[in-house]
Amino acid sequence: MLNIQFTTLFLDLEDLSIINVTENSLTVQLPRKLHICPSCGQQTQKVHDYRLQKIKHLPLLHKTYDLFLRKRRYVCPHCSKRFFEDNPFLLKYQRMTTLLKQFIISQFAQVKSASAIAKDTNVSVTTALRLFDHVDYPKPQLPEVLSIDEFKGNADGEEFQCLLVNPKDKRPLDILENRKTDDLCKYFASFPIEQRAHVKYVVMDLSSLFRSVIKSSFPNAKIIADKFHTCRLANWALESVRKEVQKEFSDYRRKYFKKSRFLLLKRHKNLKRDEDKEQLANMLAVSEKLSQAYRLKELFYEVMDSTDSVEYVKRFKQWQENVMRYDIKQFNKLMKTVIEWKNEIIAAISTGYSNGYIEGCNNRTKVLKRTCYGIQKFKRMRNRILYMAA
Ligand SMILES: [Zn+2]
């Protein structure tokens, strides 16, 4: 049984013959072949001696085993040079087979910590990481449409990293070390101007910092304010009102509102259960201010549902009237922001480009970070994220 398992393990190493099997070890050797003497260039098949070398190969399911290679040394009858046989699966001075190395690297495509990978493949964590460090991605080509977003990566002492994505094929392009204006400008400036001039749209959240970087780096790019981030601002405004309003509540009611806040944040049309709708109505009946804020949130989503700029302008005007009527400071602030970003929001509506995919990317990164207890080294994190997405 073990023998069959061992044999299948070496299917890819065709010439190898198994010469000894014990309960938990295996000895293999390569066939005897004509070799060229590295010293004088003459041919020889004369064996000088054998050495047993312990090597590492692919893991067997539920079984640890020792693998030995019976290495042959040839001797040249013309010049007496002694030399080891050629080995197609084990590079010179290596103890690990090429297949094992490839297998270990491929494990990094999964959401799995380096220590788990090391354990499963019977190597040290340092070795697993050293192998993965061979994976590296060069700077990408800039696409016509570019998405930029930040995420909390906590790598190398920087809390936030930036993610660049091509929203057309939803592929991560690059990860930048931080979100500092100077560093972002320097990064984009490293691309030739012809390439930067080729970028037509840049999708981003409503951050003035990103906007100034993009404006100075991409001469022909139109900025698109990501719809998801824009809508989220209305949720944040509503959340802020909820927290303010519930300060006057009893302990019990405050806890209840906090626990049920998703009913407020979800779009009303997405509440499917009657009891949820009923519960929401009861919550809104408690505070007029909360109820007005809720209405403004819902109406804002409708503004954002507009399918062209004419519709947007019309719906926004109606929304603005309501905001002014209710005069809630959180929504006054939102209104200001939305006016300031009018062109970018309309660009989002007319092009349909969004960073929805980036959020998915960020969630995957979060899972990865949890699994790996934080990925400290920036370069490794960058390669890991790009490798997982490839
Ligand atoms: Zn020779």
Task: Describe the secondary-structure layout.
Blueprint (H helix, E strand, L loop, with lengths): L1 H8 L7 E5 L3 E5 L5 E2 L6 E2 L2 E9 L10 E10 L6 E3 L13 H10 L6 H8 L3 H8 L12 E11 L2 E9 L4 E6 L4 H9 L3 H5 L3 E4 L3 H10 L4 E4 L1 H20 L4 H9 L1 H5 L8 H13 L1 H17 L4 H18 L2 H12 L1 H10 L4 H16 L6 H12 L1
Parallel strand pairs: 2-6, 8-11, 11-12
Antiparallel strand pairs: 1-2, 3-4, 5-6, 6-7, 8-9, 9-10
Helix pairs in contact: 3-4, 5-7, 8-12, 8-14, 11-12, 12-13
Assess the beta-strand content as a share of residues. 15-25%
For the termini, the CA-CA separation is 37 Å
**H-E order:** HEEEEEEEHHHEEEHHEHEHHHHHHHHHH
Helix share, percent: 40-55%
- Small-molecule binders: zinc ion
Which segments are poorly predicted (pLDDT under 50) over 5 or more consecutive residues?
A: none
**Count of beta strands:** 12
Q: Mind telling me the C-alpha Rg? A: 31 Å
How many DSSP helices?
17
The largest pleated sheet is described as: 5 strands, mixed
Sheet/helix structural class: alpha/beta
Shape: elongated
Number of domains: 3
What average pLDDT do the residues reach? 88
